């Protein structure tokens, strides 16, 4: 029992000692602040007097103690570093999708470029007729799956004026265990008519229709199966004229760049020399810049280092891409088997950056920035269309639900809103009062003018009558003056006696 009492006494003594030390530190801290305040006040006292020094003493704040943030490294393994692997497993199981639109004049090699990009014969005529095609890996190894290729047309038939149709080719591709649901949207008939006025409208309507379908799917009660059919990228094929964009090309780019990721390419660039390609690219970039057309620009990530930034700049400098497409295997002079085109003067290699920009286009579209294309479509282009659509329908968002609730701040905001409302009502009442006063003044001025006109009319009438009477009086006086004087006729008196 005595030991317990001794332990209790010791603990109380230790606590009192800690409290005394804390109180001593607090007093010393306050004394230092007061001394510092008096020192600051004494400096001002020499310049402005005792009264100003007292006010300075009252305004000087004590120095705040420095807060130290302790950063600790986790010694044990927690496991959240495994999240990328979890996301990878989920992505592999779910697969990916890419909706690609190809627009350009007829005969520019759109189908050939798509086959070259994915190293598949997506546009083989026999497969389109049969509806089923077996796709192999790019390295020649079969993936062991038959992948269906379906060709569809848009629901709304093209008008006789535009002659532009919308065709869709869908294919499921698998490479190294990764599935890709590819959808290629083509617009045959674009630019083929004599009058190409509004020939871009069916294409813009198709993009908007897909946005509307996705918006309708989002607004459903059950959204477990949300299919993304929005256009993620649009490849616009430019004729290799070497002079510049045509008015139809420029107008199409202006109409489409705000609705999808626009990527211009120079088709069949092997007919141009290197100098002509450089001059042609500069002309196209100037025309697009003057028209305020925004192209898809690869994002830069600081965590990947300077090599990634240099690669992004190199890719962006190559836009518009001068491409050559071919799925045929040709033999070079040194005996290599490559994809390319054989000419009497030599071989053009598709995958050679010195011959074409196909590799840069493939890196931008598939290998490096496919997810960025999808993300920009969802977060920028679709959100802009969705906001404009909902605002056009009269739907407004109440931003007050996102604010932290503070009664005092809420009361101040309501007071300000009430004051603004009262000021608005006062201004409206003043405007109405001023309007009524002006209307009354105009009415009185009109009545006054009518009275003056009536008074003048009556005055003129009386004046004319007075003149007529004076004229009659004068004539009567003249007639009386001109009559001869005669003796008066005796008047016979009436009575009994005559």
Automatic annotation (TrEMBL):
GO terms for molecular function: GTP binding. InterPro entries: G_SEPTIN_dom, P-loop_NTPase, Septin. Residues 134-162, 478-498 are annotated as: Disordered. Its main location: other. Keywords: Cell cycle, Cell division, Coiled coil, GTP-binding, Nucleotide-binding. SUPFAM superfamilies: P-loop containing nucleoside triphosphate hydrolases (SSF52540). It is found in: Bud neck. It holds the Pfam family Septin. Residues 147-162 have a biased composition (Basic and acidic residues). One of its GO terms (biological process) is mitotic cytokinesis. Belongs to the TRAFAC class TrmE-Era-EngA-EngB-Septin-like GTPase superfamily. Septin GTPase family. This is WGS project CCBQ000000000 data, contig 00099. It comes from Kluyveromyces dobzhanskii CBS 2104. The lineage of its organism: Eukaryota, Fungi, Dikarya, Ascomycota, Saccharomycotina.
């Amino acid at each position: 029992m005595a030991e317990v009492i001794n332990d209790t006494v010791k603990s109380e003594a230790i606590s009192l000692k800690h409290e005394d030390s804390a109180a001593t530190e607090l007093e010393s801290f306050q004394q230092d602040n007061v001394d510092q305040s008096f020192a600051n006040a004494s400096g001002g006292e020499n310049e402005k007097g005792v009264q100003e020094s007292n006010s300075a003493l009252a305004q000087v704040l004590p120095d705040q103690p420095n807060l130290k943030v302790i950063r600790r490294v986790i010694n044990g393994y927690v496991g959240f570093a495994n999240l990328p692997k979890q996301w990878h497993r989920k992505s592999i199981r779910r697969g990916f999708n890419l909706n690609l639109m190809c627009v350009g004049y007829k005969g520019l090699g759109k189908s050939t470029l798509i086959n070259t990009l994915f190293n598949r014969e997506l546009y083989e005529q026999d497969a389109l007729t049969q509806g089923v095609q077996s796709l192999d890996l790019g390295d020649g190894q079969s993936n062991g799956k038959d992948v269906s290729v379906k060709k569809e047309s848009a629901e709304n038939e093209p008008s006789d004026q535009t002659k532009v149709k919308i065709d869709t080719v869908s294919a499921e591709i698998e490479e190294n265990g990764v599935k890709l649901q590819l959808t290629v949207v083509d617009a045959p008939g674009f630019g083929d008519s004599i009058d190409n006025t509004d020939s871009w409208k069916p294409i813009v309507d198709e993009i908007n229709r897909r946005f509307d379908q996705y918006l309708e799917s989002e607004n459903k009660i059950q959204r477990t199966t949300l299919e993304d059919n929005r256009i993620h990228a649009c490849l616009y094929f430019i004729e290799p004229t070497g002079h510049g964009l045509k008015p139809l090309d420029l107008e199409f780019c202006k109409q489409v760049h705000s609705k999808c990721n626009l990527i211009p390419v120079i088709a069949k660039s092997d007919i141009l020399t290197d100098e002509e390609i450089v001059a042609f690219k500069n002309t196209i970039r100037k025309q697009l810049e003057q028209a305020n057309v925004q192209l898809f620009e690869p994002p830069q990530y600081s965590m990947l280092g300077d090599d990634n930034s240099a690669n992004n700049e190199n890719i962006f400098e190559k836009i518009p891409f001068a491409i050559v497409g071919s799925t045929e295997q040709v033999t070079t002079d040194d005996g290599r088997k490559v994809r390319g085109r054989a000419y009497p003067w030599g071989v053009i290699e598709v995958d050679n950056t010195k011959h074409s920009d196909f590799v840069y286009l493939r890196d931008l579209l598939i290998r490096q920035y496919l997810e960025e294309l999808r993300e920009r479509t969802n977060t920028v282009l679709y959100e802009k269309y969705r906001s404009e659509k909902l605002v056009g329908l009269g739907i407004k968002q109440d931003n007050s639900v996102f604010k932290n609730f503070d009664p005092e701040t809420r009361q101040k905001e309501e007071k300000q809103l009430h004051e603004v409302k009262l000021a608005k009502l006062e201004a409206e009442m003043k405007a109405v009062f001023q309007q009524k006063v002006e209307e009354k003044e105009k009415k009185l001025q009109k009545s006054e003018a009518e009275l003056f006109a009536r008074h003048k009319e009556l005055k003129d009438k009386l004046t004319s009558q007075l003149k007529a009477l004076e004229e009659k009086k004068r004539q009567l006086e003249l007639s009386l003056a001109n009559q001869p004087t005669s003796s008066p006729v005796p008047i016979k008196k009436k009575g009994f006696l005559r």
